[in-house]
Amino acid sequence: MSHDRPNPCDTAAPPPAAARGRSGRTWLVVLDDTEEMGAALRFAIRRAEHTGGRVALLHVVEHADLGPFFGVRDIMEAEAREEAERLLHRWAEHINGHTGEFPALYLREGDPLDQLLRLIDEEPSISVLVLAAGTEPGGPGPLITALTGKHSSRLRIPLTILPGCLSNEEIDALT
User: 30 with 62: CB under 8 angstroms?
Assistant: First the structure.
């Protein structure tokens, strides 16, 4: 699948803030399988609730590296994409229950860092990127490491980094 082709899972940008009576601020969260992702998502939901903003979700399906086994790779990637769509829609229902608005959904394929930076460049409606630091001794995680290091100059929006170990109550107190 071409990375430059529009994705049917990408939703349209929200209408102007004045038309919605909202702040227009969009809080982007990267959905992955890490434990700390829940902290980033809760923070974004709470900020959207309190500011009249919106949540956006990005999930990146990484390509399977199976060498010459193209048929197997295609099947694995199709299954991963279907699972990613289910994941995005499940979280979208959850967010809608809290904010009263469905989030913008973005499903991309490829390298997570590259796709994240590309999305931020392509979508002027995205206002803030919210990530939570990993709780393992190996460091905060690859995205945070890259975005606070050599790729920091590529961000056009603020980056909010939460400690991944915050409880729901602690996140609620912050927001």
Answer: no
- What pLDDT sits at residue 90? 95
Euclidean distance between CA atoms 112 and 66, whole angstroms: 19
Residue 140 DSSP SS3:
coil
CB 63 within 8 A of CB 108: no
The domain defined by 24-174 folds into Rossmann fold (3.40.50)
User: Which residues are 55's β-sheet partners?
Assistant: 27
Q: Nearest 5°: phi and psi at 74?
A: -60, -40
Residues 62-66: contacts with CB under 8 Å, at least 24 apart: 62/109, 62/110, 62/111, 62/112, 63/109, 63/110
Residue 130 structure tokens: 């919210």
Kindly report, residue by residue over 139-159, the tens digit of the pLDDT. 899 999 999 999 999 999 999
The pTM (predicted TM-score) of the whole model is 0.82
Please, what is the Cα angle at 22 between 39 and 161, to 5 degrees? Answer: 25
Residues sharing a CB contact under 8 Å with residue 145, sequence separation 6 or more, in sequence order: 139
DSSP 32-94: -S-TTHHHHHHHHHHHHHHHT-EEEEEEEEPPP--TT-HHHHHHHHHHHHHHHHHHHHHHHHH
